[in-house]
Amino acid sequence: MAAETHGGAAGIPAPQGPVALIVGASGSLGDALAARIAPRCSGLGLHAFRNRGVCEARAEALRGLPCRASVFTADISRWDECKTLAESFIAAFGRLDELYLCAGATEDSLLPGIDAALWGRVMGVNVDGPFFLLRHFARQLVRQRSGFVVAVGSYAGACGRPGGAVYAASKSALVGLVKSAARELGPFGVRVLCVLPGFLPDSKMGRAADPRFVEAARDASCLKGFGGTEEAAKFIAGLADVKWASGQVFNLDSRIIPAV
Q1: 30, 77, 118, 184: most buried by Cβ count inside 10 Å?
Q2: How confident is the model over 21-29, as a mean pLDDT?
């Protein structure tokens, strides 16, 4: 499951920095996050499912840094593959300090067009995967009595959207998982957070969005515009230094989420 190590400059001693795993590192946000956190990491795992080449290119680009990078492949909707991913990562790096759950899937359809297979595909990546990985890394995090986890959610999970019932339901469930994990793991020094990055026009999902959706999102935003993957990655990376935040949901969008 692990590729040959790509990053890490020969002859440069590894810094005493954190060891991190980015799940969904082949996506726009995951790749931007990798570029941002690598300089402070001693080890970095880059996970992909189908687009392994993106992660290999990023790992190769890190060769000039003292960060040792490895690429991992797994279908995170499968329990056994997540178990193998966790075991392979710990075997390669010995610990896990930061876990970034950036992988996501969406398939839009109005309710009459949603079947069990579509539901399963989206839930498998957006809910099952984060749960499986938290489950398989939990013992390691508890043993360390430290760790930091960020799951990437969505504005849709808080407000819903027409044609996106499955996606919205999955991202809403993710928030419940994050808050529950934060309560369970907090006594062991493990922080678990969720970030809603907002609409990212430069992401794969953003580029594929219906222009009518984009216009409606712009109209609903206080600032009448959007950020991008680099800004979202900067915010997410910075949360590692916010030592007393856990169980929280951070919205990076200027669309206001209504109070429940």
Answers
A1: 30
A2: 97
